[in-house]
Amino acid sequence: MNIKDHIRSIPDFPKPGILFYDISTLLAHAEAWAETIRLLAEAVKPHEPELLVGIESRGFLTAAPLALALGLGFVMIRKRGKLPGDIIAHNYDLEYGTDTIEIQADAIKPGTRVVVLDDLLATGGTMAASVNLLRQVGADVRAAQFLIELAFLNGRSRLDVPAQALISYES
Q1: Nearest C-alpha neighbor of 90 from the set 78, 82, 108
Q2: Residues classed as catalytic
């Protein structure tokens, strides 16, 4: 099964000139979604993670079911102000401004092997910030895993961990 067949592209979303790769159709197709989780498991297992980390919000959709399938725990990285309790924050630069991501202070014990997941790798800024945040809390970040990579944006070059995607778009 080719999971790429289950991802639709929507032109001019969220603004003119952007081609949005929508995974909603993949999520809605049970067999394609099961195959996706199987392929993600094959890709992630060699990194021997103890925990999977998902980046808000679509990273949750990949990391949580994959963690369940692999018998691992799942931890969230969220946007500012979305997590209860003590948090560790990381500010990072965007093309026009800054943003902040957070993790619960007690979510990961120092030295824990993790793989970070998101649905899409574009410019790499959010994933690079997430890797930095995870290192702040002492995680051993083994890899970054994506469903989709927009290879033409070269986001992989911003990452200093192994990165792989199930699907790549070259233009």
Answers
A1: 78
A2: 58, 95
